[in-house]
Design goal:
The protein has about 325 residues and is mainly beta. It has one domain (about 1-195, about 210-275, about 285-310): Beta Barrel (Porin). The protein is about 10% helix and about 50% strand. The protein is built from three helices and 17 strands. The chain has helices spanning about 1-20, 225-235, 310, and strands at about 35, 35-40, 55-65, 75-85, 90-105, 110, 115-125, 130-140, 155-165, 180-190, 195-200, 205-210, 215-225, 245-255, 265-275, 280-290, 300-310. The radius of gyration is 21 Å and the shape is globular.
Length: about 325
């Protein structure tokens, strides 16, 4: 945890510089509001909004321990995610990530993960309750990534529910800046099993292996404490830039197979961090901690630069393709 605080201390002047570059005014933010509640874009889990936005880049570094199949190593991933509104409540998204694996034995592997397309529809919004619910589906395009990474050659479809809820109506002032967002989805592979044939090194004969591909329950949750909400809606504490636009956050991303395999343990990460939010840009920094022993022991970090395209280009590419105001 000392390394995390050290990174946060280094990040403070950087965030201040970003605020100047973004030309952030002191007024209210337009993107991500339900009533008086602003929900930021989260890093490890998807937020419930349909929006025009761009994450470029998201950089993560994680470490893995040695196993029977591979030596200890470090993974660096650089990804891009872009979302575009078709209507005010319906949007599409695209994501892709480049990976570099550096193992303790000196070997290295690089390549792209499978790309992903998404569709999301926002069907519930309650301004007074600071609540929002959306539904969507993502398509991991099988075989679209690099063979060097051993990506799945089959596709995976994940229908998902997204939600957000602010607690501005709580009677305790100190708790009113709290908010949660979450996701619940089921990843369904297009093939229930994969059969491969390779030469057995001991016998020299072809050997067939069958790998079961389970459906996987995927859950995400973020707990946020909004300093901007505290300042504007509860009590002005006099904090100046960049602290007045900080949102401390803890995210949990977890997954569990539900069929076809014997080991159905939960795996995932807990990501404590902080977000700095301007009118047109957001910067996020999180630690990546394994949630249990089954998830490994390596600690990593995650940083993201996120652009609100609907605030940067409100009259052009930041508008829905089909707008009710037209």
């Amino acid at each position: 945890m000392q390394r995390l605080f050290s990174r946060a201390g280094i990040a403070a002047p950087i965030l201040s510089c970003v605020a100047v570059i973004a030309g952030c005014p002191g007024g209210a933010l337009a993107h991500g509001f339900v009533g008086q509640r602003f929900f930021p874009a989260t890093l490890a889990t998807d937020d419930p909004f349909v929006a025009d936005e761009l994450s470029l880049p998201t950089v993560s570094v994680t470490h893995s321990e040695a196993s029977a199949d591979a030596p200890a190593g470090k993974q660096t991933a650089v990804s891009i995610d872009v979302s575009k509104r078709i209507t005010d409540d319906l949007g599409i998204s695209f994501g892709s990530a480049w990976n570099r694996f550096h193992f303790a034995d000196g070997t290295r592997t690089t390549g792209f993960d499978n790309s992903e397309l998404g569709l999301k529809y926002q069907f519930y919004r309650n301004e007074a309750a600071e609540a929002l619910v959306s539904a969507g589906i993502s398509w991991e395009i099988g075989g679209s990534g690099s063979r060097s990474l051993g990506v799945d050659r089959f596709s995976t479809y994940t229908p998902t529910i997204f939600f957000g809820k602010g607690f501005g109506n709580l009677p305790v002032d100190a708790l009113r800046p709290l908010a949660v967002t979450g996701t619940a989805g089921l990843a369904i592979p297009s093939r229930s099993s994969t059969t491969t044939t390779a030469v057995d090194p001991d016998t020299g004969l072809p050997a067939t292996q069958v790998q079961r591909n389970p459906d996987v329950l995927r859950l995400g949750l973020s707990l946020q404490y909004s300093i901007p909400y505290l300042q504007s809606m509860v009590k002005d504490t006099g904090l100046g830039a960049p602290w007045n636009r900080m949102i401390p956050v803890v995210e949990i991303a977890a997954a569990r197979p539900v069929n076809r395999v014997e080991d159905r343990s939960w795996t995932g990460t807990v990501n404590p961090g902080v977000l700095w939010v301007g009118q047109k840009v957001q910067v996020g920094l999180e630690a990546v901690l394994p949630m249990n022993h089954a998830s490994g022991r390596g600690v990593g970090w995650l940083v993201q630069l996120h652009f609100f395209l609907d605030d940067i280009f409100p009259n052009t590419i930041g508008r829905p393709l089909i707008s009710a105001s037209r």
